[in-house]
Fold:
Amino acid sequence: MVFIPAGEFTLGIVPAETAPRFMSERTAGRNAQPQQKRQLNSFYIDKYEVTYEAFIRFKPVAKYAVTQPNEPIRGISWYEADAYCLSIGKRLPTELEWEKAARGMDDRVFVWGNEFHEEWGNFGKTVQPVGSFKKDVSPYDLYDMNGNVSEWTASWYEPYPESTYEDENFGRKFKVTRGGGIQKREHGFMQEFTTITYRNFLPPDDRFWDTGFRCALSGPPEP
Structure:
């Protein structure tokens, strides 16, 4: 795990009129506004997505469409991901923890900066073993937060503080997923879907072939 110190970070993205040129009002970027500073306590988070090899020790009777033991586990529900983390004394990260761990202390939109580089993360059609892309590394030295599979978080899909954006899906119905670039090239606004700030939301009891997770752990109490 990697230690993320307590402190302020930038959450969300600026409005479309001042956002990077690839942003569009036609996409869900509005649910990540307004951009704001948020304070978080310290926490730990897994350096890599949880692998098939690790997960199958927790659920040995399960069968998944995975070809290599060091590929990220996917095709599991939020409840399965949550149970795995709890079984080893950890928990799922909140979406704010996930974004800080991916983003660092500035307002970058990709883990490496503000320019999209298709070859720097796994944005193809096939899941790759964790840590395969050496440029897809956050400022805190965490791998695969831009590419590879999406990741469950602990958070319900709710509006950000002071948001004026309305979405009928807000509430305790869907869990937020973050990151992941598999198959995003099929969409017309691929770059936006691969930004750190992009918020997707899924039913917690469903399974998705491109969604996995990593675990977190609360840090020591603040003095």
